[in-house]
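thread from #wetlab-drylab

HS: before we spend reagent money on co-crystallization trials with 2-acetamido-2-deoxy-beta-D-glucopyranose, can we at least see a predicted complex? here's what I'd submit
DV: go for it
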Amino acid sequence: MVAFKAVLLIAAALGVSAQNTTLRYMPFGDSITEIVCWRAKLWEKLQSTEWAGVNWVGSGKTENNCKDTKYDRDNEGHSGFLAINIANNKQLVGWLKNNPADVITMHLGTNDIVQQGKSVTDIIAAFSTLVQVMRDSNPKMKIIVAQIIPMGLGSFNTQIQNLNKAIIPWAQEKNSTDSPIWVVDQYTGFSGSSDLRDGVHPNDSGDTKMANVWYPALVHAFEVAKAGKAAVRDVEVPFTA
Ligand SMILES: *[C@@H]1O[C@H](CO)[C@@H](O)[C@H](O)[C@H]1NC(C)=O
Ligand SMILES: *[C@@H]1O[C@H](CO)[C@@H](O)[C@H](O)[C@H]1NC(C)=O
Ligand SMILES: *[C@@H]1O[C@H](CO)[C@@H](O)[C@H](O)[C@H]1NC(C)=O
């Protein structure tokens, strides 16, 4: 009995009893993450899988008339925000402190280009800062970065494509085993006219396309994140035996 109690104490000291293996996913971005329905569609798509119980996290709960009352609305989409400003103002630091995550998706850069004509170099530098913030929060953060969707207004798509091209070598350089970065292409196959409701935000057809692009990458990221957590448990079990 004494030995049994000692074992429990050791387990508590190691944090085993406090460990929660429910995965946490943060959808992070601007209005193309906040006032859209791809989050609802993606959540629905996951309900028939083992990832139905993943906890979506973030400070926002914006709903966009998605005609879906059930989905987990928590997200970190901020309409009008620039990647560069989020990085410079260290906003993601607090967002992740309040809502830690295992997996994060990022669709950013549209406002940098459209509102302020920022250079690809400066946007990519902001991405580097944001990835560092993610890894400071969780050294094993699984990161999915989008090559962003086209615009239907103005003539921004050349610059958007320049950013999208630069994302690949940047992600390869920043990649790591503990905290992989996967790039998904939200641009190719997305129509700047028939997939947007207002020239900027996806309509039903665009939301479906975006959900379908996120889906396989997100499922893979959940698998890798779960395997990582299981490995931590396996290491701790012999201590308690
Ligand atoms: C783990 O976290 C999830 C979601 O935050 C919660 O629903 C669940 O009750 C927690 N489980 C334990 C054992 O604390
Ligand atoms: C990063 O590494 C993972 C394997 O850990 C790989 O699947 C992924 O494609 C790599 N990312 C890039 C941008 O090359
Ligand atoms: C999406 O919006 C465009 C115009 O913005 C329209 O042509 C198209 O029919 C819409 N599609 C759907 C599925 O809402």
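DV: Residues 142 and 224 are 8 Å apart (CA to CA).
HS: ok that's useful, forwarding to the group
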